[in-house]
Amino acid sequence: NLNLLGEKQKALSWYEKALKQDPIHILALNNTANIYDELGMYDQSELTWLKLIAAYPDKTSLYRSLGYLYWYRMRKTPEAIEDLFQKGLSITNNNPDLLGWLTSYFLETGNNEKFVEYANLLNASRK
């Protein structure tokens, strides 16, 4: 509730206390990563998303969230973003959700070659 009321620092301190009791609590880590992002603490947000992915490697939403952080906040290279998703695709057996994200990303960034590559993989996964 503190987070929803805009009390980001107070909410963060409560999440940190919760993480001392359960260091891989998915909701506490997720909300902590989001608060770090909202506070402009991108490196801490990245580390928290990576911790989440390490603990829950099959959760595709975590890759997407980190992908958005890399793209919009940290301005990582397309290669770094693709590398993150390649790891997720390997773990999740080419999950269509991750393929769809990459397809959209490369379409939006104007990389037609990569767009076609991932669109073809996405279409093949639906058959």
Biggest sheet record? none
Helix count, per DSSP? 7
Assign an overall shape.
elongated
Mean pLDDT level = 94
Measure the end-to-end span.
43 Å
* Estimated radius of gyration: 16 Å
Structural class: mainly alpha
Which stretches are low in confidence, meaning pLDDT under 50 for 5 or more residues running? Answer: none
Order of helices and strands: HHHHHHH
Strand content: under 5%
Topology:
Blueprint: H1 8-21, H2 26-38, H3 42-55, H4 60-73, H5 78-91, H6 96-108, H7 112-125
Task: Put the structure in a nutshell.
This protein is elongated.
Keywords:
single chain; 127 residues; mainly alpha
What does this structure look like?
- The chain contains seven helices and no strands.
- With 127 residues, it is mostly helical.
- Helix 5 packs antiparallel against helix 6 (96-108).
- Helices cover 76% and strands 0% of the residues.
- The model has no long low-confidence stretch (mean pLDDT 94).
- The chain has helices at residues 8-21, 26-38, 42-55, 60-73, 78-91, 96-108, 112-125.
